[in-house]
Amino acid sequence: MKEIDEVTADVLDAALRLHRELGPGLLESVYETLLARRLQALGYRVVTQQLIGAEFEGILFEAAFRADLLVDDWLLVEVKSVERLLPVHSKQLLTYLRLKKQPVGLLINFGNETLKEGFKRIVNDYRPSAPSLSSPRLRVNDTSSGA
């Protein structure tokens, strides 16, 4: 298994090459599909539209969210094609990372003239201050709650 920095570098390199060839302005789904295909050609396992479940107050939402790409079962990649990234985009990816209990994700925006200002590496460093199984906070993959 490749190290996290090597995988993220490969993803960013593939995204950069794709953006150079196609430029901005296409639909997010086009960039997502082509990026997935290029990563698969590099030997990565890539799942598109990965379902992310969540539980809140005892109610399980099996398909609460969809991450654009899941690379090698641990790197989440959110693809955007917007004029500029907003804080809500980073928060979206951070939520996915927390729910999947993953350490790092990439937010890539193909909507800019260059990709240099269009990507962010998001790190999940969330540590609950007082973990509690009875907490109504959103949680996922918690087998101790009996859900």
Write structural notes for this entry.
- By secondary structure, this protein is of the alpha+beta class.
- It has a single domain, classed as Trna Endonuclease, Chain: A, domain 1.
- Helices cover 32% and strands 28% of the residues.
- It has three helices and five strands.
- The protein has helices at 4-22, 28-41, 87-100, and strands at residues 46-56, 59-71, 75-80, 104-109, 119-123.
- The chain has a five-stranded mixed sheet with strand order 1-2-3-4-5, with helices on both faces.
- Strand 1 (46-56) and strand 2 form a beta hairpin.
- Helix 1 (4-22) crosses helix 2.
- The longest helix is centred in the first third of the chain and has 19 residues, at 4-22.
- It starts with a helix and ends in a 24-residue tail after the last strand.
- Residues 129-147 have low confidence and may be disordered.
Rg: 16 Å
Number of domains: 1
Q: Report the top-level CATH class.
A: Alpha Beta
Average pLDDT number: 85
CATH architecture field: 3-Layer(aba) Sandwich
In CATH, the topology is named Trna Endonuclease, Chain: A, domain 1
| DSSP helical segment count | 3
Extract low-pLDDT stretches. Answer: 129-147
Order of SSEs: HHEEEHEE
Instruction: Report the helical percentage.
Output: 25-40%
Q: What is the number of beta strands?
A: 5
The secondary-structure class comes to: alpha+beta
Strand content: 25-35%
Output the strand order for the largest sheet.
Answer: 1-2-3-4-5
Question: How does the major sheet shape up?
Answer: 5 strands, mixed
Distance between the termini: 32 Å
State the shape: globular
